[in-house]
């Protein structure tokens, strides 16, 4: 049986970049457990929807997550992305999260 998670790969990429905005996409892919090409598409999706901004810093990119925006699905539309990220950050600080453990 395939493993599943409550958060989509888009959410995982957003968490990774909010936690470390200077990550290269190869590292995001390794942390999320998907291909670098999939991460590139997700970053394009997040940028197009306004959830993420990419800024060129020298030869690298720095990402800014726009935490004031709401979740996209109507069931969670009243929740801001930042509230979700705060929950994840809090759990990681308190030792409740598995920091970048493989999910498979």
Structural class: alpha+beta
**Biggest β-sheet strands, sense, barrel:** 2 strands, antiparallel
Gross morphology: globular
CATH class: Mainly Alpha
CATH topology: Arc Repressor Mutant, subunit A
Read across the widest sheet, the strand sequence of neighbours is: 1-2
CATH architecture: Orthogonal Bundle
Number of domains: 1
Distance between the termini: 11 Å
Number of strands: 2
Helical stretch tally: 4
Q: Return residue spans where pLDDT drops below 50 for at least 5 consecutive residues.
A: 99-104
What Rg, in angstroms, do the CA atoms define? 14 Å
What percentage of the residues does DSSP assign to strands (E)?
5-15%
Superfamily (CATH H level) name:
Winged helix-like DNA-binding domain superfamily/Winged helix DNA-binding domain
State the order of secondary-structure elements, H for helix, E for strand.
HHHEEH
What's the helical proportion of residues?
Answer: 40-55%
- Mean pLDDT across the residues is 90
């Amino acid at each position: 049986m395939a493993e599943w998670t409550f958060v989509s790969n888009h959410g995982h990429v957003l968490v990774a970049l909010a936690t470390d905005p200077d990550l290269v996409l190869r590292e995001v892919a390794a942390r999320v457990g998907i291909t670098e090409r999939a991460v590139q598409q997700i970053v394009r999706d997040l940028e197009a929807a306004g959830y993420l901004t990419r800024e060129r810093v020298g030869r690298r990119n720095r990402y800014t997550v726009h935490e004031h925006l709401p979740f996209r699905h109507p069931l969670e539309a009243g929740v801001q992305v930042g509230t979700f990220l705060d929950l994840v950050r809090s759990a990681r600080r308190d030792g409740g999260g598995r920091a970048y453990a493989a999910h498979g």
